[in-house]
# Entry
Amino acid sequence: MIQLDNVNVYYGESHILRNVSFEIPEGQALCLMGRNGVGKTTLLKTIMGLLSPRTGRVSFGGQDITRETPERRVDRGIAYVPQGREIFPYLTVEENLRLGYESSGSPWRAGLGRSVFEEVFELFPKLPQVLGRAGGVLSGGEQQQLAIGRALLGKPRLLLLDEPTEGIQPSIVMEIQRVIQSFKNQRRFAILLVEQYMEFAATLADTYIIMSKGSIVSAGQTSELSEEHVKQYLIV
# Structure
């Protein structure tokens, strides 16, 4: 599905990602872990095409996409829910969702109605209650649900989630965890999840990688994660 081979990314002359290589098979979930500042978000942006590697290769579905635009990657089925969620604050919830639907290549037509959002509404029952509200007035948890729902409407083959539970009240965290768990169980698409907590990662992902100073320092099955990993790489 997605494969990185010896990817190196720089900000100016600062070497951020160092010879990063890994693969996520179709339908699998991988958790990317590490302390703040080790390059996790940079890695997601590189996969999305928002940053370009100086050297190395990014492949998706067996094809080299290293120099493709973010728009082309969306067309291929890569969806990204960034850490800041980046919904459109002045558009309503329904308008934000429409944009997600249109990103799948299906133009919005009069008369479609809300039926196209049915799955999203089932996953996040709060959203149909706030359809007419501007995205910017929603709570952090509601915005995160909207961002994930919008990404799903693009019919992704790979879903990138950057710390989807950060700064969200516990009840919404449990709801988002339930939704991600259902994605994993269905195996409809691959998932790359950035998360700090070992228990969360072990529950939601098949495999993990841990980064430190821009490099992958540990990788394996989430069942192999231990307190030693936490002490060495995850506790500040």
